């Protein structure tokens, strides 16, 4: 069918004018041309502008502000949300530079809600300035700690592993006396070779249930001074 024509009841009828072929349906006011007779898409008419409607400048400012907020939100997402972290593994960090170590400590200070923390093989020497108020499980296996006083502040600790460090004394176990600690791993430290090692640990921590993977035994409850005779041997 030639352009500019339409059918009505089987009869070919010419459009009122060829200019209506590309006119939106809502622009047709007082004609007998229907929307399905046009050659352009049907577009919904927008709201009528009035004085109460926001100006273009207001709309632009609003869009600019929203765009800035979206960009800020995206920047926040790119940053690590350490404060809300509850479980974290920061092992094997190879902290060979002073700047790396300082940045690592800065991250640890932000872990105010962490409950499970892995810090294996990080060559850490002193964490006494760090406080982990909600930490229940801390793994410091294979670091450079020389004393239990170099541990972070862990008032809620339940499971603690400091195996393969350089801890020589057990006296600092008193620092953990008022914590809910019931699992402790101290093996492969020099203190493991102290006389009456297990009984000494349980004398400092009477509520401890498991030491070095072994549950508390009846003989572990005997004070160390009563076990001295059992350690004597006779060489013939």
Automatic annotation (TrEMBL):
Keyword Cell membrane: no
InterPro entries: LRR_dom_sf
Stretch list, region Disordered: 40-72
Parts of the chain that traverse the membrane: none
Compositionally biased intervals (Polar residues): 53-62
Keywords, comma-separated and alphabetical: Leucine-rich repeat, Repeat
Record carries keyword Repeat: yes
UniProt xrefs under PANTHER family: GENE 29133-RELATED, LEUCINE RICH REPEAT PROTEIN
UniProt protein name: Protein tilB homolog isoform X2
